[in-house]
């Protein structure tokens, strides 16, 4: 359990804004591509950062590439090569953060504060050699600490590192800048990692679908992990995993306002059980359902199907095996996987069709996944009754079900998804503006 | 004196083309911004480089940033900061070469050859800490050599290095990519450094002014130094100085044709004296003339004037002191300096006006400088008679004169410059298409 200084959200109840945590806090603040999309926005970020520095904080800023820079660079790469080598693609893409971080350092200097920018390599972000999706092995932020000790604001390129083995430049893949920020916060033992984005934080559902979705002030790492895994785009799974492992308090907030965002922190087990909180409803339209029809109903067949798909580097999500039709000796196996990997999964299955002996594959990309998340549900069995009751009342057919201790997920028709989200959100009264997180106790409220 | 292998131009008389030097030569080839301005040009460069590799050469390619990239980055910098810190400006601008080198490596890989790109830092280009105009202290190209040993083409970012003291990214300033190429060629003991540009090499005069200007096949380091210092833009002074110091044979040639260019090499003294070659006429419109009027005619005054200007970091070029008007005790001092430094020079002089006691300054930016260059002239006194005779015959008034052992320079009205260049070029018959360099012997031909 970290000290009180590392959990500022716990001290006052009200989530703090950057710069008002406590005198001389050490903050790592990450600004995404839309926050540094042009010169004017970079200057606004500079003002915000300098204000925090003048309040007495030590500030490390992690930046993504400006707006569309990465797409423009990818487009150039495509023009010279249909399949660019991964090492060179990383070399190319890392130019994007180099541009934004240098411009931010300039803008800060112009405001009279001292700033120094550092590449991932200079910041000590050491990774493995998996170009395009490198994993952070170690962070040795000696130059960052030196810059802070000299009173400067340190600006660090997100999304990039240097390979421990080859010394080549690597990129961390999707959500990489968030992960850079959390990893630096952990290595520097920062008081908080602030993730600036284009929304005010995490909500009880997507406000575009549920107009009365409620802002979540505080959420546990475990709940945020489930939210991220189930389609909430505000934080990447990897970044939350990293934050949980090193107990880094994360503050997700808007770069366009000074409102408090959502704190992702450790929440004591006792507190969670007692309050039985349901956090929110996440949804995901990015997956498709693959059905392997007519598999021989004998041991090892399901394993062979899943191994073939996994070997092709496709992440399986929800899985269901329909019991065999009496006497046929055959069974169907369904799973969901990212639509982007649909072709890969089908190709991998086709290769093992003869060997496994299934009849055919079906591919359905008109599905939607809905997940209810809350650490409270594990000790309150009434939750699932209410969950499925609300879907039934709304006339929604459930195709696949999967659960964890703090989550229930279902697959429905994609056209049913919005009304399903609203039904569940309403059934648990998540939109109630008076609740500090809806308190759900047992079978009724 | 280098071995024959290091002086390919000497072996055959005819300058070789890239890839036809000798089997398994080690070549460093530099392509400027216009050669890599878009995806299509990058692919053309890739083809050229791969062809050379397939001919059996080891190839290191140094690239500049694509076309207008540097200007676009400077424009962004200006938008966020009126006076960007030099360290951050270097961080920003070096993104340009990172983009072009990664794209070139991709394009080469697509053609089936192996390529690896390296930043200045990765290539071992160690500099001092003078951001924006760093000087190369050392080159430790271990990773380049390893890439070559593994059969890869090494692509290196020009114009950039890493500071020995601070480990910060530096840029080498104007002509930096040429200098990177020559420095790498020296460190790798390459057989030649090929500088690809948008012209076919060095000419006896600017072909835009002198239509029958002759292509120069071979020129000594010393002559090329004078040419570069006197306005020939094809190679930067710094790069030639570096090449001379390490005896790197430089081949300046067009990236848009396969014609032989101009070899800049060591040429034995005996050969030069014997042939008495006049190489060409250079001109320069980038300077202005400053006149300090009414200086006290006593020892130390000229030194005080020049010190004031030099302390402001202005490079003085040609200097003349007009003898004092009889009895006045006053004299005028004139010098030329880059127009870009005009304001700086005048401001520096204004500060010391009272102390030195001169009357006023005059500023004239309508001047042009013409220089005749050739290692042969030092032992042939008839050269200057013919030089000044040709200007007099053309009715051109000479304002300042300066000479070295292998150069005569004059300042004239800028409007007189084209006819002055043509007059001198014609007087020495430099346009003669039969000459292999015009042989000028004594007082006649």
Can you describe what's shown?
Two copies of one chain form a homodimer. In chain A, α2 crosses α4, α3 packs antiparallel against α4 and α12 crosses α13. The first copy, chain A, is globular, with a radius of gyration of 24 Å. Chain A has three domains: 251 residues, 3-Layer(aba) Sandwich (Carbamate kinase); 76 residues, Alpha-Beta Plaits (2-Layer Sandwich), CATH 3.30.70; 73 residues, 2-Layer Sandwich (Alpha-Beta Plaits). Chain A has 445 residues and is of the alpha/beta class. In chain A, a hairpin with a 7-residue loop joins β18 and β19. The first copy, chain A, is built from 13 helices and 24 strands. Helices cover 34% and strands 25% of the residues of chain A. In chain A, strands 3-6-2-1-9-13-14-12 form an eight-stranded mixed beta sheet, with helices on both faces. At the A-B interface, α2, α3, α4 and β3 of A face α2, α3, α4 and β3 of B.
List its salient traits:
homodimer; disordered N terminus; Carbamate kinase; 25% strand; 445 residues; nucleotide-binding (chains A, B); Alpha-Beta Plaits; Aspartokinase (chains A, B); Asp_kinase (chains A, B); 4-stranded mixed beta sheet; globular; alpha/beta; kinase (chains A, B); transferase (chains A, B)
Mean pLDDT of chain A: 88
Shape designation of chain A: globular
Class based on secondary structure composition and strand pairing of chain A: alpha/beta
Which percent bin holds the helix content of chain A?
A: 25-40%
Uncertain stretches of chain A: 1-20, 435-445
Compute the number of helices of chain A: 13
Walk across the major sheet of chain A and give the strand order: 3-6-2-1-9-13-14-12
Strand content of chain A: 25-35%
Known CATH architecture of the largest domain in chain A: 3-Layer(aba) Sandwich
Q: What is the C-alpha radius of gyration of chain A, as a whole number of Å?
A: 24 Å
Give me the CATH superfamily of the largest domain in chain A.
Acetylglutamate kinase-like
Provide the number of structural domains of chain A: 3
Our measurement of the CA-to-CA distance between the termini of chain A, rounded to an integer number of angstroms, reads 33 Å
Largest interface: A-B, 41 and 41 residues
Strand segment tally of chain A: 24
Major sheet details of chain A: 8 strands, mixed
Quaternary structure classification: homodimer
Q: So what's the CATH class of the largest domain in chain A?
A: Alpha Beta
CATH fold node name of the largest domain in chain A: Carbamate kinase
């Amino acid at each position: 359990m970290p000290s009180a200084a590392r959990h500022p959200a716990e001290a006052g109840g009200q989530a703090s804004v950057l710069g008002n945590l406590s005198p001389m806090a050490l903050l790592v603040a990450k600004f995404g591509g839309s926050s540094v999309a042009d010169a004017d926005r970079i200057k606004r970020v500079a003002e915000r950062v300098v204000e925090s520095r003048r309040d007495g904080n030590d500030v490390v800023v992690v930046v993504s590439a400006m707006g569309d820079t990465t797409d423009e660079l990818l487009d150039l790469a495509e023009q010279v090569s249909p399949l660019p080598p991964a090492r060179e693609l990383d070399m190319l893409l890392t130019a994007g953060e180099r541009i934004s971080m240098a411009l931010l350092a300039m803008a800060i200097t112009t405001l009279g504060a001292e700033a120094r920018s550092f590449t991932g390599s200079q910041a000590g972000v050491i990774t493995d050699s998996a170009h395009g999706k490198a994993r952070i092995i170690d962070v040795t932020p000696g130059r960052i600490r030196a810059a802070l000790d000299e009173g400067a604001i340190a600006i660090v390129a997100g999304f990039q590192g240097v390979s421990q083995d080859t010394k080549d430049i690597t990129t961390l893949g999707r959500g990489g800048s968030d992960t850079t920020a959390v990893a630096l916060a952990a290595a520097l033992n920062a008081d908080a990692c602030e993730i600036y984005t284009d929304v005010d934080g995490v909500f009880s559902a997507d406000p575009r679908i549920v107009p009365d979705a409620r802002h979540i002030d505080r959420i546990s790492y475990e709940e945020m992990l489930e939210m991220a895994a189930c389609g909430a785009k505000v934080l990447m799974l990897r970044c939350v995993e990293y934050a949980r492992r090193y107990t880094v308090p994360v503050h997700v907030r808007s770069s366009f306002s000074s409102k408090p965002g959502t704190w992702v922190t450790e929440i004591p087990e006792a507190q969670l059980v007692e309050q039985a909180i349901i956090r929110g409803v996440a949804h995901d339209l990015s997956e498709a359902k693959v059905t392997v029809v007519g598999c021989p109903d004998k041991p090892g067949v399901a394993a062979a199907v899943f191994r073939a798909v996994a070997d092709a580097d496709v992440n399986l999500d929800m899985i269901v095996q329909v019991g065999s039709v009496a006497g046929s000796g055959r069974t169907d196996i369904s799973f969901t996987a990212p639509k982007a990997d649909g072709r890969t999964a089908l190709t991998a299955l086709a290769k093992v069709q003869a060997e496994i002996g299934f009849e055919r594959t079906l591919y359905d990309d008109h599905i939607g996944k809905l997940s209810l998340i809350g650490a409270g549900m594990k000790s309150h069995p009434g939750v699932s009754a209410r969950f499925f009751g609300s879907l039934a009342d709304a006339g929604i057919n459930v195709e696949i079900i999967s659960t964890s201790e703090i989550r229930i997920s279902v697959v429905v028709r994609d056209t049913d998804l919005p009304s399903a989200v609203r039904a569940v959100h309403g059934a648990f009264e998540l939109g109630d503006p008076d609740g500090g997180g809806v308190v759900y106790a047992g079978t009724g409220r």
